Amino acid sequence: MLEAINLSKKYGEHQALKSLNLNVPAGETYCLLGQNGAGKTTTINLFLGLLKPSGGKTLINGVEVNMDKNTTNSMIAYIPEVVQLYGNLNGLENLEFFSRLSGHNHSKKWLVSLLSKAGLKEKHHTKKLSSYSKGMRQKVGVAIALSKNAQVIFMDEPTSGLDPQATAEFTAICKELVSEGKTIFMATHDIFNAVNVGSRIGIMKEGELIHSGKTLDLTAIELQDLYLKTI
Ligand SMILES: Nc1ncnc2c1ncn2[C@@H]1O[C@H](COP(=O)(O)OP(=O)(O)OP(=O)(O)O)[C@@H](O)[C@H]1O
């Protein structure tokens, strides 16, 4: 579903990505780990088509991102670390606004069902966003991704700043989405979450993918050891 082929990115003279090769089959959750500045966000931005590669290419479901952005955009959604929504609108209104913006005209009933599926309790649907926690905002972000019917959901640091309960709820939602055939690609520093939710992990160092493989029954301690040896 996701492929990076000899992908490289230079910012001026700085080589942020060095010939990255990556393959994520459909229905997997890929967790990309690495120190600050390793190149994780750059990789996501190249898949999103927000950056142009300096070399190589990214493909989504076989379509090259920079060749046909309309097609690839229709297959993907992005949930940033802090989901930017309108504070003066409620959760349902935000979802309605953003799903319309991406060209959909879903019924209110359907949008309510998406918010509930994303784990947002119904009593919060009509509360102003300004009263939402980070975890609740993220649930609206998941609902927006669902309203787009995205096949692939990219996430940047999705569990950063979430309390253990919000993290557990988020993990459960990710697992449900993947069980329905979605593909998730996330950049994260959260090793526990990576083994919990990830079916594959990648470890980056200074723009290179040093390790990539299935998590299988790797424990968090084993992944931490592998991470520390790799970086
Ligand atoms: N717009 C930019 N201009 C110049 N350099 C940049 C730009 N964006 C990123 N970089 C550099 O590219 C490298 C990779 O950055 P990137 O944000 O992809 O790392 P990251 O792994 O996501 O880090 P973090 O964990 O801190 O989010 C870093 O050295 C960063 O300083």
Automatic annotation (TrEMBL):
Give this protein's Gene Ontology molecular function annotations.
ATP binding; ATP hydrolysis activity
Do the record's keywords include Cell cycle?
Answer: no
The UniProt entry, under Gene3D superfamilies, shows: P-loop containing nucleotide triphosphate hydrolases (3.40.50.300)
**Transmembrane: present as a keyword of the record?**
no
SMART domains, A to Z: AAA
- What are the record keywords, sorted? ATP-binding, Nucleotide-binding, Transport
Transmembrane domains' residue ranges? none
Q: Which residues form the ABC transporter domain?
A: 2-231
Coiled-coil stretches: none
Query: PANTHER family annotated for this entry?
Result: ABC TRANSPORTER ATP-BINDING PROTEIN ALBC-RELATED
The protein's name in its UniProt record = ABC transporter ATP-binding protein
